[in-house]
Amino acid sequence: MLPGVKVKDINKLPDERGFFAEVFRDDWQDLLEGDRVVQANVSLTYPGVVRAWHRHLRGQIDYFIVLRGALKVAVYDDEGESPTRGQLNEIILSSEKFQLLRIPGHYWHGFKAIAPEPALTLYFVNRLYDYSRPDEERRPWNDQRIIDPRTGKPYDWNAPPHR
Fold this sequence. Notes:
2% of the residues lie in helices and 44% in strands. The protein is mainly beta. It has one domain (6-154): Jelly Rolls (Sandwich). A five-stranded antiparallel beta sheet has the order 1-9-6-11-4, with no helix packed on it. The two termini are 20 Å apart. The relative contact order is 0.27.
């Protein structure tokens, strides 16, 4: 994994009524690395939709958990002098196995909804959204500058998983 990108398994406790799960706790410092979460958001993404690429240059860190459906999340480092420049991580998040994904915002990241149903994603951030000066830089979802190190070609959101 790229430095700072982490996945934490979430304990899902089923019973005859349904289930209960703690999806975020302030004492998960092995995951938080000192971050303080200040905002929670929810997003619904229709099947096959790609939401990419973006990054945050003023210190925002994102924490994603998929409550329904599934996402293929990609995280890419293209920082000039970074020792992990050109490295890309792919993580599958699914409501079948609750996991909390930490993404340091300086990495380019995005996701594709890969289940036949919409993906419902809850995400937390450590910086409040600034309406007058958003901390977000964007690239097109099919940006040719994001190279998949496995193929040496531009990242393909639609590539089959069995390559």
